[in-house]
Write a structure and sequence with these properties.
- The complex is a heterotrimer of chains A (323), B (300) and C (597).
- Chain A is built from 13 helices and two strands, in the order H-H-H-H-H-H-H-E-E-H-H-H-H-H-H.
- By secondary structure, chain A is mainly α.
- Chain B is mainly alpha-helical and 300 residues long.
- Chain B has eleven helices and no strands.
- In chain C, 34% of the residues lie in helices and 25% in strands.
- Chain C is built from 21 helices and 23 strands.
- An eight-stranded mixed beta sheet of chain C has the order 16-17-18-13-19-20-23-22, with helices on both faces.
- In chain C, strand 9 and strand 10 form a beta hairpin.
- Chain C is globular and about 70 Å long.
- Classes of the chains: A mainly alpha (323), B mainly alpha (300), C alpha/beta (597).
- Chains in contact: A-B, A-C, B-C.
- At the A-B interface, helix 1, helix 6, helix 7, helix 10 and helix 11 of A face helix 6, helix 9, helix 10 and helix 11 of B.
């Protein structure tokens, strides 16, 4: 319990610091006033705009104002679309999250078994081909893969759509697209694209973990007990391999969400990534701020969850400290 | 028990490492490819038949020509031309050059900064160490691409700014790796022995601890260089990377993206393949290095 | 003697292993047999191939990197002809095996109960409830108290000795006919070792189980083995029953081995230290007068953090009010088991750790209070040799550079003189001057330790602390290093603080002995007084546990000694000075017992 509070406190601190950094950073970006007004606006109009957007106040006051609004759920209104920034973000979040989770799932379901396989007999040709595949997945820039996938499956073969998201249905008020076949068709390419890099990483990590595990004394002892290889693998080795993986995988989930930016651009997937790129281009400060803050929030939450999960799962950490 | 007389008394850790590398075909291939590409890139101004960024040399009528075709002036576009009439072969040479130097410089700077901080942090311990590692943790929990996005929005476009952004995203990896490694080494008895011999602390850190961190540092560095090159390519692809006048392979690929669907594949494909080759080569090397440094614990 | 079928009949067993791409013969054709109820000890130094032989029998060697030839007949069946499934049925069932490291033999993320019951379910087809019942019974048999509640605990809750008991319970769960024990007690304290050996022997008798005992400790051999097979470099050199081996060793290597093993009690009646392979005690090197090292009420306290907030709640007194003097040319042997604080004491004296309290006076100068400048100068006068010679040398530095570095840093030699100085140093420890250009891993363990000694001598110290410096070495090498240390003491008049857990070695080299327990010195006096007439109950307990390499020696029942918990005190608790009773001249014993304050 103490631990949870401790962690929560750290999280809040991180959030605070990040929000400050983000705010100051974006504030330095440039004078948005010039973007909003035409070049021959009168000084009076200019002053009017400045006041309306609160830009005449000092940085700190703007920040405080921002924070107080934020805590009430108001992250400002988009300067371009004239819609609350938070609303824009929340609208596009489900799409990104859906993509990210599916990609994450694919990475785990494919990566872990392949990694374990590669770790059991590292010298065999199976392991070598898996590692070769992993090397490729690791080295191919995701945008290039995206392009190639589109070329192959959309242009040449025509099997899968090249862009966009499929039709959505609502679960608990959140629109998801994987429930329909058409939705899945639209999901496959971008999810695969996003997952590829992660699959490679998961394979490598699992492989190393498995190999190290197999060297351990307790595995030798388990064999000396006459246990079947199956049991040794699934009961003794797997748990030990996966536990250290948890922390890394948590980070990877966050990374997938961020990397979705590229995939969304290529596949015109209506998620947060597309939103932020456009916002950056148009210097829509509230949207940029809102996006960064939401992302920071998500990451810190994920990190915290991962830490807690790790403590629950590893008996050494859970019981350690007591004699 | 190792016998007293070793076959080669001219042994050194470097020679042993090189020997191990030469035994692996993958690593060998990686090194060769890298060397070739680096040479080509260095000699680009000399070899390239055309300077693709000298606007006076371009003729838009030469645009989008198939690989192998000739221009009106009898100039052969071996790898085709892009929409502006640039020779893809030359563009790729220059692009590789840019990609390479940005990747290497940013990684080198990140390495120097990161390593120094890492050693310093391990050396100081206590509060300073805790603060530095907290910063590292925060930095590392955010994906590099996000950080780069934010930074480039702040800095604007330009090669130096990309290098800066890359350095800022990369330094933390080095710091964490080196600090972790340094802490482990500092627990070892030879460091304690050095202390009992009253050697000065800076000497211990830089002369004893740091060289023993080099193996894992090389592994991290190779992987990070590959990642830096890939990140730069991705950023250029998204349009917030290099300006059009100084493209890297990533930008070339981005330029060709639009023409992909209409079938003019060569504008994107060839730069893509070159980028791929580059990254794969570096990763092959990194893989081999990691394998070598792991079972490097000499037989007792 | 009737002809009984041997349980294990090994004929012409040879094993090759592939390392770094090349096949090496690790075990050359070896033959031996073990009958039911019999114990065969496989003895050898490191690299002799004894462990590989055991793994070969169990077929635990990596399949792709090993080649085994010959025949291993277990109860009539040749194990080498069996398939994987059949071998799995035998392992853990008819043949049990236990390894050296109890700390790592148990899977840290599975409960003890799981790890025991899985064997029972696998080989004896029990269901969960029956298996748990049986597991409890097994734990009780190996003397683990409150076994029922321990089933769901994790290995981290058990100490090393207890873990080894669990491992034994698992190995014997299916009442195998053969137990293979690979150095089962090497990693344990001598008192724990005594208990474990007794346990194994008891269980063996109850089940009429044969045992293959692998060890390098001749004392353990003398205690447990009926027959002995001596191995060296993969060859079986000599095999005979235990008594004959000790009394009439035939092979020169066996003879060398037995002579190099110190026997506790050999030095009875001799007051001075004595080198190995001689019968002449050392000439007197102790210089009377001012002591070269004085330690007064030295304390080292470590904080204990508990709870998730990791706050400091208590302190552990790792070194508790330790006092002693050391004369120039004298060797003080410091003995104690693991965790008693002897290494912490060494580090505190060397100021690798800052002491919490007390004084250390080196050559009449205050060491603990010295400022950095004085400290640098004083460091030259006291040096430390560690246990693990591999770890103590920078693997990336040529040893010549490693030796020259301190001399150059302190200005003892100029750059031109360095080479010659290094050559002289190497020769003084029995190494050739050309070795200066080599890297540490090109040397054997014993040679590396010589390099460490050379490095310690480079600054011409007046005190050397040897912290378990020979414990990691093979027996024969150990003897050489001990002799080297005694030579150096003779020629340079160095005061030596020799820290070890090996009583027999301490007996050979020390003028005086101090016994340490839970951070305190419980007994100190001349070596003869402490080892021949121990006065403190802990010392008696310790001495009664030491195995003697003499087959006729019956180790007495272990003198019991209560083991209280590690003392944890509130922060900054100052305790009154310890009281010692002088039972004879120079022989002091701690009063109040240990840990009862």
């Amino acid at each position: 319990m103490r631990f949870l509070l401790n962690r929560l406190g750290q999280t809040l601190l991180t959030l605070f610091v990040m929000s400050l950094l983000v705010f100051i950073g974006v504030w330095l970006v440039g004078d948005p006033v010039d973007m909003l007004l035409s070049s021959n606006a009168t000084p009076a109009e200019r002053a009017g705009v400045i006041r309306a957007f609160g830009l005449d106040q000092s940085v700190w006051r703007q920040y405080l104002h921002f924070i107080s609004q934020a805590l009430q759920g108001d992250l400002g209104v988009s300067w371009v679309y004239n819609v609350p920034a938070l609303k824009l973000i929340m609208q596009s979040m489900p799409a990104t999250l859906e993509l990210a989770f599916v990609a994450f799932l694919i990475a785990l379901l494919l990566g872990i078994p392949l990694g374990v396989l590669a770790g059991i007999k590292p010298e065999g040709w199976v392991a070598k081909s898996i590692m070769g595949f992993s090397l490729l997945g690791f080295s191919l820039p995701s945008f290039w893969v995206g392009m190639m996938l589109i070329m192959l499956f959309s242009v040449k073969l025509g099997w899968l759509p090249a862009s966009g998201r499929g039709p959505t249905q609502d679960i608990l008020g959140i629109p998801v697209s994987f429930l329909s076949w058409d939705g899945i068709r639209h999901l496959i390419l971008p999810a695969l694209n996003l997952a590829l890099f992660k699959i490679a990483i998961v394979i490598r990590l699992t492989r190393v973990g498995t190999m190290e595990c197999l060297q351990q004394d307790y595995v030798r002892f388990a064999r000396a007990k006459g246990l079947t290889s199956g049991r040794i693998l699934f009961v003794h080795v797997l748990k030990n391999t996966l536990i250290p993986l948890i922390t890394v995988l948590g980070l990877e989930l966050g990374s997938i969400i961020a990397f979705a930016v590229v995939t969304e651009t290529i596949y015109a997937w209506p998620g947060m990534g597309k939103l932020i790129i456009a916002a950056i281009g148009m210097l829509d400060r509230p949207v940029i701020l809102a996006y960064l803050l939401m992302t920071v929030l998500m990451f810190t939450l994920i990190n915290m969850l991962v830490d807690v999960l790790y403590v629950l799962v590893d008996p050494r950490v859970r019981h350690g400290g007591r004699k | 028990m190792t016998p007293v007389s070793s076959p080669s008394s001219s042994y050194s850790p470097w020679r042993s490492a090189i020997r191990h590398i030469l035994r692996r075909p993958g690593a060998l291939a990686g090194i060769v490819i890298l060397l070739v590409m680096t040479m080509l890139a260095l000699l680009a101004p000399v070899i390239a038949p055309q300077n693709p960024y000298d606007l006076s040399q371009l003729d838009i009528l030469d645009g989008r020509l198939l690989p192998g075709s000739q221009s009106a002036t009898g100039f052969t576009f071996w790898l085709g031309s892009d929409d502006q009439g640039r020779d893809m072969f030359s563009a790729i040479l220059y692009g590789t050059r840019t990609s390479l130097w940005i990747g290497f410089i940013s990684s080198f700077l990140a390495l120097v900064i990161g390593t120094s901080l890492g050693i310093f942090s391990a050396w100081q311990g206590g509060r300073i160490d805790a603060v530095i590692m907290r910063i590292v943790d925060i930095q590392l929990s955010f994906p590099p691409i996000l950080i780069a996005l934010i930074l480039l929005t702040l800095f604007g476009q330009g090669a130096e700014k990309i290098v800066l952004a890359l350095v800022i995203t990369q330094w933390a990896y080095y710091t964490r790796a080196v600090r972790g490694n340094a802490l482990v080494e500092m627990e070892r008895n030879y460091v304690a022995a050095a202390k009992t011999l009253a050697l000065s602390q800076p000497r211990i850190m830089f002369h004893h601890v740091l060289p023993n961190c080099l193996p894992s540092l090389t592994v991290v560095a190779t992987l990070r260089i590959a990642y830096a090159i890939m990140l730069e390519a991705t950023l250029s692809f998204l349009g917030i990377g290099l300006p059009v006048t100084q493209p890297s392979l990533g930008l070339l690929i981005a330029n060709g993206f639009d023409y992909l669907l209409s079938g003019d594949y060569w504008i994107s494909l060839y730069p893509g393949m070159v980028l791929l080759l580059l990254i794969i080569a570096i990763n092959l090397l990194g893989d081999a290095l990691r394998d070598i440094t792991n079972p490097q614990r000499e037989a007792r | 003697m009737s002809i009984i079928e041997p349980v294990l009949d090994v004929r012409h067993l040879s094993i090759e292993l592939k390392t770094d791409g090349a096949w090496k013969t690790i075990v050359q054709p070896l033959s031996f047999a073990i009958r039911p109820g019999e114990t065969l000890a496989l003895v050898g130094e490191s690299g002799s191939g004894k462990s590989v032989t055991a793994y070969g029998i169990m077929q635990l060697l990596p399949a792709l990197h090993s080649r085994i030839r010959g025949s291993i007949a277990f109860q009539g069946r040749d194990l080498l002809t069996l398939g994987t499934k059949q071998m799995q049925d035998i392992r853990g069932n008819r043949i049990g095996m236990i390894f050296q490291e109890p700390m790592s033999s148990l899977n840290p993320v599975l409960t003890i109960g799981t790890q025991i019951t899985e064997v029972l379910k696998r080989h004896r087809g029990m269901d969960n409830r029956a298996a748990r019942q049986e597991a409890i019974r097994l734990l009780e048999r190996v003397r683990i108290s409150s076994a029922a509640s321990r089933l769901d605990a994790y290995p981290l809750h058990f100490s090393g000795g207890m873990r080894q008991r669990v491992v034994i319970a698992i190995a014997l769960a299916c009442q195998p006919d053969l137990l293979i024990a690979d150095e089962p007690t090497t990693a344990l304290d001598v008192t724990v070792q005594a208990e474990i050996l007794t346990l194994i022997q008891t269980l063996q008798r109850e089940e009429n189980m044969a045992a293959l005992f692998i060890t390098h400790d001749m004392g353990v051999v003398a205690e447990v083995a009926d027959k002995v097979l001596v191995m060296n470099q993969g060859q079986g050199l000599e095999m005979s029953d235990t008594r004959s081996l000790f009394q009439h060793p035939r092979h020169p290597y066996t003879r060398k081995l037995i002579e190099a093993v110190p026997r506790l009690g050999d030095m009875r009646g001799i007051s001075a230290p004595m080198a190995f392979n001689t019968t002449q005690p050392q000439p007197d090197t102790v210089q009377p007068g001012k002591p070269v090292l004085q330690v007064n009420d030295l304390c080292q306290r470590f904080p204990v953090r508990s709870g998730w907030m990791r706050r400091i709640t208590k302190e552990v007194h790792a070194v508790d009010r330790v006092s002693f003097d050391l004369q120039p040319g004298e060797t003080l042997g410091l003995v104690g088991e693991s965790g008693c604080g002897k290494s912490t004491l060494a580090k505190t004296i060397m100021r690798l750790l800052e002491a919490s309290d007390g004084k250390v006076v080196l050559e009449q100068q205050d060491l603990l209070g010295a400022n950095p400048l004085q400290l640098a100068a004083m460091r030259r006068r006291i040096q430390l040799i560690f246990q693990d010679p591999w770890e103590s040398l920078n693997p990336r530095m040529r040893i010549g550079d490693a030796l020259a570095e301190p001399m150059l840093a302190h200005g003892l030699v100029t750059a031109d003189q360095a080479d010659q100085a290094v050559a002289d140093l190497l020769q003084s420890v029995g190494l050739a001057a050309e070795m200066a250009s080599r890297f540490p891993h090109q040397f054997s363990g014993g040679q590396r330790q010589r390099v460490c000694i050379a490095r310690a001598l480079a600054l011409k110290p007046s005190v050397i602390i040897a912290d378990e410096s020979v414990s990691a070495l093979d027996v024969s090498v150990r003897a050489e290093i001990i002799n080297l240390l005694m030579d150096i003491q003779r020629s340079q008049g160095i005061g030596l603080l020799f820290i070890s857990h090996d009583m027999a070695v301490v007996e050979r080299i020390s003028h005086r002995v101090a016994v340490m327990y839970q951070g305190k010195i419980v007994e100190i006096g001349s070596r003869q007084a402490v080892l021949e007439t121990p006065a403190h109950p802990y010392t008696q307990h310790l001495l009664s546990a030491v195995p003697i390499p003499d087959p006729d020696y019956q180790r007495p029942a272990l003198k019991p000694f209560p083991k209280p918990q590690l003392t944890e005190w509130p922060i900054n608790q100052r305790l009154p000075p310890l009281r010692y009773l002088e039972v004879a001249k120079g022989h002091k014993v701690l009063v109040d017992g240990a840990g009862e304050e």
